Amino acid sequence: MELATEERDLPRFFDFTAWLEAHAGQASFAERVRAHFLALHPDQDEA
């Protein structure tokens, strides 16, 4: 597996949820990832 070396190959942090939704094919996957992250890092919640 080759690592992405160009910036266009990497999702930008602020587009990460949209990137997850597009590649996972479902918004609920991104929501579960965000919920899991917030459960581990509650101080990161910016909502």
Question: How would you characterize this protein structure?
Answer:
By secondary structure, this protein is an all-alpha fold. The protein is 49% helix and 0% strand. It has 2 helices and no strands. It is elongated. The protein starts with 15 loop residues before the first helix and ends in a 7-residue tail after the last helix.
Structure summary:
The protein is mainly alpha-helical and 47 residues long.
Key descriptive features of the protein:
47 residues; 2 helices; mainly alpha; 49% helix; elongated; single chain
Query: How far is the N terminus from the C terminus?
Result: 36 Å
Tertiary shape:
elongated
User: What class do helices, strands and sheet pairing give?
Assistant: mainly alpha
Helices, by number, come to 2
Largest sheet: none
Q: Flag low-confidence runs.
A: none
> Quick one: how many beta strands?
0
Into which percentage range does the β-strand content fall?
under 5%
Mean pLDDT: 69
Detail the topology: elements first, then pairings.
Blueprint: H1 16-24, H2 27-40
Helix pairs in contact: 1-2
